[in-house]
Specification:
100 residues; mainly beta; 5-stranded antiparallel sheet; 55% strand
């Protein structure tokens, strides 16, 4: 985590994604809307089965209830994630999928 702070209105996190070290695994938030912003490099943001290539200085919104994940498009990417209302520990639920 490069930056992590909260206000009464939002949580803001800046973090690095690295290929091979994993990304943000599939999960869902039931209360928070999230805004992902690419700061450096590009990222692949998957939301409800649709993948968006997030180029630097571009943003995408993830609505509450949407299953989503993030991976670097190349070797690394730096993303900012804004959660409104502030993200709480009980509002990030992992999504486990089974491929049979």
């Amino acid at each position: 985590m490069l930056e992590d702070f909260a206000t009464t209105e939002a949580t803001v996190r800046v973090f690095r994604l690295s290929r091979g070290a994993g990304g943000v695994n599939r999960h869902v938030h039931h209360r928070s809307t999230q805004i992902y912003v690419a700061l450096e490099g590009s990222a692949l943001i998957e939301s409800d089965g649709e993948t968006t290539v997030l180029a630097p200085y571009r943003a995408t919104v993830i609505a509450p209830g949407s299953t989503h994940s993030a991976q670097p498009a190349q070797q690394t990417a730096i993303l900012m994630n804004i959660s409104i209302p502030p993200l709480q520990a009980d509002d990030q639920v992992p999504v486990v999928t089974t491929d049979w």
